[in-house]
Design a protein that fits this description.
Layout (H helix, E strand, L loop, with lengths): L6 E7 L2 E4 L1 E8 L2 E7 L6 E2 L11 H22 L11
Antiparallel strand pairs: 1-2, 3-4, 4-5
Bound molecules: zinc ion (ZN) (2 copies).
One zinc ion (ZN) binds next to helix 1.
């Protein structure tokens, strides 16, 4: 079985994503399986869930951006399309 390479979605090494360090079996993503950790940013991933959020700074940042986008979208939707205009007298 060829060694599986999982790459960090946040870190670049040369012209490709940085391979993550394979760790022995552990509980990650709710299942007991091999998992990988990025030595640069601390991102953790399992082969089946490379892009799921973990507790690293990069994932937290992505979460914050996602929340801000959602909040902004809801704010815009709640605005009336036509603002009331002053009566022309
Ligand atoms: Zn990384
Ligand atoms: Zn992460």
């Amino acid at each position: 079985m060829p060694e599986q390479i999982v790459r960090c979605p946040y870190c670049v090494l040369g012209n490709e994503f940085r391979p993550m360090l394979r760790r022995p079996r552990g509980r990650a993503g709710g299942r007991l399986e091999n998992w990988f950790v990025c030595l640069v940013c601390g991102h953790k991933a399992t082969p089946g869930a490379q892009h799921s959020s973990c507790a690293c700074a990069k994932c937290q940042e992505m979460d914050r951006i996602a929340i801000r986008c959602r909040t902004t979208g809801e704010f815009q939707r709640s605005l009336p399309i036509d603002l009331p205009r002053p009566a022309a007298h």
